[in-house]
Design brief:
Two copies of one chain form a homodimer. Chain A is α+β, with helices and mostly antiparallel strands and 281 residues long.
């Protein structure tokens, strides 16, 4: 029986710290660093249609990263509908989540005979081409607290993980922040890469959740990729004994513990560390 | 606060087909092939104790693979308790599940500052040394329908995945089968490696669940790693339109669909494809 509609899920991903790794080949471009894959994320439905359309949370959108995946993989016009349960552009890797869930749905819809890494590779490339992300897709096809040891698309980049249980992650969003300008500022890139490299080295020596959170917080403070509001929230949550850092690249704060204090700074969303990953549903 | 007891989960893993890849270094030893990671599996608790003990499903056991992990990682005597929800020695990769869940629990109990791959590496090595398994651990730290493209411990072996949803997997167990004698029979090894290599090549060309199941069934028939009872069950389930194969290395049959027919051959257990993986709980 031929089906005309397939659905996939992809988790959100919060990068705590990172190092930008550029290369002439987008499959080898990416980032080193570490981040938490979340149960929240997106569900994308792909359906045979009269013309190509992308709908994000019920609105027709340009969605360049998802669109590039669609143009690369769809053999006929399709209607892509992605629904996200976290705000877009705030550091949750949702362009990657949209792109990889689109790739998995299209793989099934058109019987493309590609593995998960092959399909997700298109999502990684689309992220790199559009400068919307560098390391979310490889984390999203793995799950957990992912250490990105070497950059690149799934199957090319090298990952490991910090051993953690499914802990609750509290999130407060202050505003949007675009990845693109940061990736184009040479001074900022140097600062990021110096801080990111050193944080990764420290995490590999002591791969624990508290150390990941501390290194992420120091990365945000050291690179000054942090708003005043985020700085205030971090100080307060820290004073209460919670572990807290900034979602890169976004103006959002994430915490393990200290949720009561964090809730004083804005709408508190509670997610969990996702040990699963992007997949057909 | 110092805790004296930690628990981890590890999923079962059914190999459908495989190729044995030996090397003088146990970390580089392993198998190529493909298999399904299941939601069923084991939970292991590690606790500071007066002397080293390993309890499996409530009985003190030798459990050489888990014991080797314990001896490698524990800094003080510990009591390891593993509980399995599938029968041991029947093709579900449970020696690997016990070993990797032990490694993760000990990592936390003793604050070993190791990543998931580093801890799981001890479980992989213990499997290889005891000849209880070759490719289960790397699959169990990844989850899904795992393709083992290159052999080795987690972080060394190369994996990819067939894109699948969380489908139900039906299982009927006919009896035990030890991995060790098969790994020591040179003729059998040649047959396995020829059939396994060819199956992997075919799966990578068409990485779909039905193709994985077909290639697995052909592998069991071609290598004659199949009992009469399993052969009868496979013929019947296949005739009813189900996808069915033998769990390697065990005398068990697993199926996607055709559960009513499969249930006529023995106690039917229903699990699901696990998209998560071994982790602290």
């Amino acid at each position: 029986m031929m089906r005309y509609r397939y659905k996939s899920y992809a988790p959100a991903h919060i990068t705590g710290f990172f190092e930008i790794c550029e290369h002439s080949d987008p499959k080898l471009t990416g980032s080193r660093g570490a981040g938490i894959v979340l149960e929240h994320g997106c569900v994308t439905e792909a359906e045979i249609s009269e013309g190509n359309r992308v709908e994000i949370n019920g609105m027709l959108e340009k969605a360049p990263t998802t669109r590039l995946v669609m143009e690369s993989l769809a053999k006929r016009p399709v209607f892509i509908k992605s629904n996200f349960d976290l705000p877009i552009g705030c550091g949750f890797g949702l362009s990657g989540a949209g792109a990889v869930s689109t790739a998995l749905s299209l793989g099934e819809l058109f019987g493309l005979n590609m593995t998960v890494n092959e399909l997700a590779g298109f999502a990684h490339e689309a992220e790199v081409m559009n400068r919307t992300g560098l390391g979310d897709v490889i984390a999203q096809v793995h799950g957990g607290l992912v250490i990105r040891k070497e950059p690149g698309a799934p199957g090319i980049g090298v990952i490991d993980r910090v051993s953690v249980a499914s802990m609750k992650v509290g999130i407060v969003v202050f505003g949007e922040k675009s990845t693109q300008p940061v990736l184009e500022d040479a001074d900022m890139k140097r600062r990021i890469n110096k801080a990111g490299k050193s944080a990764l080295k420290s995490l590999l020596k002591k791969p624990t959740l508290p150390n990941f959170m501390d290194l992420s917080k120091e990365f945000a403070l050291g690179t000054e990729l942090i708003s005043e509001k985020a700085r205030d929230a971090i100080e307060a949550v820290e004073a209460s004994g919670g572990l807290v850092a900034v979602a890169m690249l976004g103006d959002s704060v994430f915490a393990i513990g200290g949720f009561d204090v964090l809730a004083e700074f804005g709408e508190l969303r509670i997610s969990r560390i996702q040990h699963g990953r992007a997949r057909l549903i």
